[in-house]
Specification:
With about 110 residues, the chain is of the alpha+beta class. Helices cover about 25% and strands about 10% of the residues. The strands form 2 sheets. It has a two-stranded antiparallel sheet with strand order 1-2. Strands 3-4 form a two-stranded antiparallel ribbon. The two termini are about 25 Å apart.
């Protein structure tokens, strides 16, 4: 039997933008240093979610690997992703990110630690 998924605690925070007011119960999950997360409470919750995901996907691991191998087999090793517009942390001017070669991706998705 599968364990229950983790439930994020609710911490109401009043927000306002352009005269519209709402309550965000999950604002505490936003780390101001994202994508680096340093808040121990957020990290603990993410670890619980990742453990739940790993446990729920474990019975399907063979299928996941089979589908991944099939998809990877349909992509030429020298194919690259299209450039993506990235918004830098400072300023509003977009910049282009480097193309990623599909052959440089990891052979297996290990998830987040």
């Amino acid at each position: 039997m599968l364990a229950q998924p983790p439930v994020a605690r609710r911490v109401p925070k009043r927000r306002e933008r352009l005269g519209i007011v709402w309550t965000d119960d999950y604002a505490w999950l936003r780390d101001p240093d994202y994508p680096q997360v340093h808040d121990p409470a957020i990290l603990d919750y993410l670890k619980a979610e990742n453990a739940y995901f790993a446990a729920s996907m474990a019975p399907h691991q063979a299928l996941v690997e089979e589908v991944y191998a099939e998809l990877k087999g349909r992509i030429k090793p020298d194919d690259s992703s299209v450039p993506v517009v990235a918004r830098p942390a400072t300023g509003n001017h977009p910049s282009w990110t480097e193309k990623i070669s599909f052959s440089s991706r990891p052979a297996k998705n290990t998830g987040v630690a």
